[in-house]
Write a structure and sequence with these properties.
The chain is of the alpha/beta class and 190 residues long. It contains 7 helices and 7 strands.
Length: 190
């Protein structure tokens, strides 16, 4: 990495984006901006997004997903560390065939939750947005996994309790395409 900086290359110049930590408006703006700039520069044949996120705000995550879908440059995703909640939905939106998960990644799928305050009318109005968000999430899973029905989805990945998955299970459900193999230094004795 230092060698690339010395040559005047940043990770953005090389087509690499890190999405780590909480997915919020600030993170979404940075990721969306990077994807747009990489599309406009035309320097990279692909974008590699590395995700280590426990999730965050649905609106911010869907903004990232919409820009990934808009991108003329394919966005490949790699999940490591933790890929959970909205972080998982962003990961899933990567270019099919190129969604890579590392073997020790903690992976969480669950229903979204929200906390609302306000008068009765405000709560009723907010409920419509919650229903719309829930439907977006269901549609996203059905599009980016090999789950075939809402009933199957609700019994496997969007249950009433958190669903922790192994890397192998993410491939089984079509959420990831490949588990990155363990690479060992051959000169090191085991």
């Amino acid at each position: 990495m230092e060698e690339n900086k010395a040559k005047g290359h940043s990770l953005d110049d090389l087509g690499v984006i890190f999405l780590s930590g909480n997915i919020n408006e600030t993170a979404a703006e940075a990721v969306c901006r990077s994807i747009i700039e990489m599309n406009l520069s035309g320097k990279n044949p692909q974008i590699q997004m590395i995700i280590n996120s426990a999730g965050g705000e649905c609106a911010a995550g869907f903004a990232i997903i919409d820009i990934m879908n808009w991108s003329r440059v394919p966005v490949l995703t790699t999940g490591l560390g933790m890929v959970a909640s909205m972080g998982l939905l962003v990961f899933m939106a990567g270019q099919k065939g190129h969604r890579v998960i590392t073997p020790r990644t903690s992976i969480l799928s669950h229903r979204f939750w929200s906390l609302n305050v306000g008068n009765h009318s405000q709560l009723l109005a907010r409920r419509k947005e919650e229903d719309l968000v829930h439907q977006r999430i269901v549609n996203h899973y059905l599009e980016y996994s090999n789950i075939g029905s809402v009933k199957e989805l609700e019994s496997t990945l969007l249950r009433d309790v958190d669903t922790w998955l192994s890397a192998e299970e993410t491939v089984k459900y079509g959420i990831a395409d490949l588990i990155e193999g363990k690479r060992r230094n051959e000169s090191r004795s085991v």
